[in-house]
Amino acid sequence: MKLRFKILAGLLLLALCSFYAPPPYRFTKLLARAQLNFEQPTGWVEVPVISNSKMHYDYAIKSPDKNIELRYTIRPMDSLLIQYQKMKDKGSVILHPNTYFKPGIVAILMNISSGARMPQTKAYDSLAVKREYNADRGMTGITLAGAAFAQDYKNCMIIAIQKDSIGYAYCFVLFNDPADLKTLPPSIFYALKFKP
Question: What does R_g of the chain's alpha carbons equal in angstroms?
Fold first, then answer.
């Protein structure tokens, strides 16, 4: 009787675990280096990362019921800070990595859109971004998405956050119908947060 119970419990556990696959090892290592927490939205399914020349991303998931894909790029600052210090010690004039955030987002959106038009961006309120993401800076933007990055999607929204001297995190929301965005639960937009 105990053996039957153990087998049944094991099969049940196996079945439950098959519905959720943890993010890949490389992505979880980047999250750790950038001191980020990631809460995968319930029901969203991992899809392959597609190599492209416009913007590398580390992990992607797709909505179970809408034509929406989320792509995540994580950029820890640890190696950038080492390079910055080396260049600074040599007397070079170099910008601190904390200053790359805003121009970086505009450049990313221009790449994604293949330069179709200047993207619309908006900075988050500093108190709100601290409270909601434990970040020092945050921005959002939207652009038409070029096929090289987005394949069959027409639009791309970016949610970008930065924690000074720690890292950057980007979530790309790819979609066709803007009405679909309005139906997404707020948790989708808060899946990535810096650790306190």
Answer: 19
Express each pLDDT in 64-94 by its tens digit. Answer: 999 999 999 999 999 888 888 888 888 788 8
Burial 145-155 (b: 16+ CB within 10 A, else e): bbeebbeebeb
Question: Could you give the 3-state DSSP secondary structure of residue 138?
Answer: strand
How many structural domains is the chain composed of? 1
CA pair distance 39, 42, nearest whole angstrom: 9
What pTM value is reported for the model?
Answer: 0.85
Question: Is residue 35 one of the residues assigned to a domain?
Answer: yes
**Helical ranges in the chain per DSSP H:** 2-17, 25-33, 78-89, 101-112, 126-133, 147-150, 178-182
172 part of a folded domain: yes
Range of the domain at 175: 22-194
Q: What is the CATH number of the domain that holds 124?
A: 3.40.1000
CA-CA distance, 28 to 187, in Å (whole number)? 19
